[in-house]
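Below sits our specimen:

——
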Amino acid sequence: MRALACLAVLLCPAPALACRLALLLALDTSSSVDAREYILQRDGLAAALLAPEVEAAFLSAPSPVALAAFQWSGQWNQRVVLDWRLIRSGEDLLTAADQISRVDRGPTGFPTAIGHALGYASTMLRDAPACERQTIDVSGDGVNNHGFPPALAYKHFPLGGVTVNALAIGGATELPELIEYFHLEVIQGPNAFVEQALDHEDFERAIRRKLEREVGQAMVRLERP
């Protein structure tokens, strides 16, 4: 009987996953980001989600992408702006972009706690649909200066196997310094990368490029024999 059960497991196909990628966007709302810069991030992300090349990346494979987003700043200052949503159509992207564009900024005046943002992200990924891959997309204009660092987040939270990419926004910190920090301290996983925006006004272009690359990587992996 045991042998038959083992044979059944081998012959039966594994259940299909709900999506090819769970993509979690983390937006910096720390004290180095003023009200105007927050709006540039929020509206830039909403616009990027509706760009034709980004929509094509989301929809050019039969398996969908699950998308969610949150704001982060200090140790205990994270706020969900978009809960997990499967993107199966242009209408789904439009709904997600519209929701993001309507969210006001959370509490202001808090420092930059990237380690805590990663820890919070791990709790959101726990509730994500079952996907082939999980990616956290961290945008920020400064280095960690509050709470535990990213290295401790990776040590103590279940982030193994999760790809973490970063978008370095110039302005509050010199861009070359910030890019190096994200490379050394924040990103992890196969094909992880750092995108750059010259400043917050350049955020829409940078996040559009970043989304196209992240979602496109998932599509290539899905289609690989």
Summary: The CA atoms of residues 165 and 193 lie 5 Å apart. DSSP finds eight helices and six strands in the chain.
